[in-house]
Amino acid sequence: MKQLGLLLGVLVLVSCAPQPTHEVVRVTVLVTQPPLPTYTPYPTYTPYPTYTPPPKPTATPDPTHPPVAWHEIARWEGKSIKDTETFHIPSDEWRISWDAGPGTLGFGMLIIQIYEAKSGRLVGMTSSGMGGDRDSSIIRGAGDYYLAILADTTYTIVVEANY
């Protein structure tokens, strides 16, 4: 563009200048365009590598320490309010699992209270929501316990020890 403006300025200057009557002035102007930009394509998409977790080492059984598993200690089924018989938990970790029915009107309630057998001290409490429900709770501490079951629906309660 700068060269084009210079060319027009030269032509105007030449055309306005007094011209000799017998002389011919010839002006050659070389017009060049700037080079076109070269096409550089965008880089191709390279996806991130997918994560592959390292393989988990396989546990070699130790013959002196057998694997720990859940063992059923006691089970109750019913539809009433009651205290259970005393049961013994030989391990430091155990669980109570329950399955409560929906009840006669479509909703039911199940509350399980956990007591130490010797002192009668309340150790914990689990509860189902309204309607059919199933769940489990982990309790810690070896010893002798009993349950107080408050229910207006059918239930199955299972106590398991981890040893």
**Arithmetic mean pLDDT:** 80
Structural class: mainly beta
Instruction: Based on Cα principal axes, name the global outline.
Output: elongated
Number of helical runs? 1
Proportion of strand residues: 35-45%
Order of helices and strands: HEEEEEEEEE
Helix-residue proportion: under 10%
Q: Which residue ranges are poorly predicted, with pLDDT under 50 across at least 5 consecutive positions?
A: 1-14
Biggest β-sheet description: 5 strands, antiparallel
Total beta strands:
9
Describe this structure in words.
12% of the residues are buried. A hairpin with a 5-residue loop joins strand 5 and strand 6. The protein has one helix spanning 2-16, and strands at residues 70-78, 82-83, 87-89, 93-100, 110-116, 122-127, 133-140, 143-151, 155-162. With 163 residues, the protein is mainly β. The model is unreliable at 1-14 (pLDDT under 50). It is elongated and about 135 Å long. It starts with a helix and ends with a strand. The protein is built from one helix and nine strands. Strands 2, 3, 5, 6 and 8 form a five-stranded antiparallel beta sheet that branches. Strands 1-9-4-7 form a four-stranded antiparallel beta sheet, with no helix packed on it.
